[in-house]
Specification:
This protein is α/β, with parallel strands linked by helices. The strands form 3 sheets. Strands 4-10-9-8-7-5-6 form a 7-stranded mixed sheet, with helices on both faces. Strands 1-2-3-12 form a 4-stranded mixed sheet. It starts with 14 loop residues before the first helix and ends with a helix.
Length: 402
């Protein structure tokens, strides 16, 4: 949140100034219903979450294919850890790189139809790394207003000019691309938006980028494994020069990737600071993730089951006249409005045995707090039916708080 004009200015050089500032900020967030709380949770079974000793049906994870708890992958990880140990022990360029990393990168490149892939520790690292390595002062990054924080931060950190356009607005994107710049242009979008579940018009954005001599970067965090042929992503076959994805969502693992041509990846190996100056992904993790790629590609029943669940949820929510969002993906937000009402609704669902996170500002714009329901192939049809019944019971109460 932006500092308000009425706030005191903290000019003391003593530590009391810092403590007072923190107390003030905490009070402001509490008054707005925006304090965040860490919940100690255990996810031991697919589609289930245990919080405070109580098991609930989990509609809050990004484990879209239900792979995070696949016992075959846990076995691969354990076997690989016996060979490689716990950690890589060094950065990739200083001895931390091994065959496990190379093989995972090749498997991912083949899946995505890219010349090469480079692994990063997280999606956040990948975004900061690729944007920092490409953008120079004078360049411009044109971004959808609802892009993930790491994409916006990456452009800012690079010192490039950040131009945003209204969500999914092609004309807005074109206007921002058309404005003069002394440098180069990069158009950046998610393929599936994480808080809304809607999809970017990638073919149109690709054409737009071409018309303005811009490169296009597509973040496939919520699409890899879920959309496209064999789950290869929403941008599969679209000849997008830079693709990014996390391995922590549908693949059920950890880590991230940038995919592109040889020249791009070699540039990143030289220049991406979040690649160069950080410990390599544990090799055991890389090895287990390669098996997750095989499962994600070949067990296509997971994608079909997920699609059936999405349709089932939307049909049921429509019948209940719940405020469905225009989303055809596994992310099904229900707009509530105030942070307080969203929290109260999440609490009601919690008491009824469901984990459904309330998403509040600043993660989403003020006044658009929501429940974010994430569906997964780990769910049974009866899980979705039970959630709909609980929503039917809780929703009208929440409206009074709106
Ligand atoms: C989750 C996410 C990331 C970050 O990926 P991590 O591997 O969790 O750091 C980046 N971009 C988008 C769009 C995401 O949803």
């Amino acid at each position: 949140m932006k500092p308000a004009a009425a706030r005191p200015r903290w000019t003391e050089s003593s530590t009391a100034g810092w403590a007072a500032r923190l107390a003030q900020r905490a009070a402001e967030r509490a008054a707005a219903g925006l304090r965040r709380r860490l919940l100690a949770a255990e996810r031991q079974a697919p589609g289930r979450i245990r919080i405070d000793g109580v098991e609930r049906i989990d509609f809050g994870s990004n484990d879209y294919l239900g792979l995070a708890h696949d016992p075959r992958l846990a076995e691969h990880l354990a076997a690989a850890a016996r060979r490689h140990g716990l950690g890589a022990g060094a950065a990739r360029l200083l001895g931390g790189h091994g065959h496990a990393h190379a093989e995972l990168e090749e498997a991912l490149a083949e899946w995505l139809g890219a010349e090469r892939v480079l692994l990063f520790s997280t999606g956040y690292h990948a975004a900061l790394g690729v944007l920092g390595a490409l953008l120079e002062r004078g360049d411009v990054a044109v971004q959808d207003k609802l892009n993930h924080a790491c994409l916006l931060d990456g452009a800012r950190l690079a010192g490039a000019e950040l131009r945003r356009y209204p969500h999914l607005d092609l004309d807005g994107a074109e206007r921002q691309l058309a404005r003069p710049t002394p440098g180069l242009r990069l158009l950046v979008t998610e393929s599936v938006f994480g808080m809304d579940g809607d999809r970017a018009p990638l073919a149109e954005l690709r054409a737009l980028a071409n018309r303005h001599a811009a490169w296009l970067l597509v973040d496939e965090a919520h699409a890899l494994g879920v959309l496209g042929p064999d789950g290869a992503g929403a941008a599969a076959g679209l000849d997008v020069p830079i693709r990014m994805a996390t391995l922590g969502k549908a693949l059920g693992s950890f880590g991230a990737l940038i995919a592109g041509d040889r020249a791009l990846i070699e540039h990143l190996i030289d220049h991406a600071r979040t690649f160069v100056y950080t410990t390599a992904l544990p090799p055991a993790w890389a090895e287990a993730t390669r098996h997750a790629v095989v499962l994600a590609r070949t067990e296509s029943w997971r994608r079909r089951h997920l699609e059936d669940l999405i349709e089932r949820f939307r049909d049921g929510a429509r019948a209940l006249e719940l405020p469905l969002a225009p989303s055809s993906t596994a992310i099904q937000p229900l707009l509530v409005g105030s942070a307080r009402a969203a929290l109260s609704l999440a609490e009601r669902l919690r008491a009824a045995g469901f984990h459904v996170p309330a998403i509040r500002p600043p993660t989403v714009p003020p006044g658009t707090a929501r429940l974010r329901i994430n569906l997964s192939a780990a769910h049974a049809e009866t899980d979705v039916d039970a959630l709909l019944a609980a929503l039917a019971a809780a929703w009208s109460d929440a409206l009074r708080l709106r």
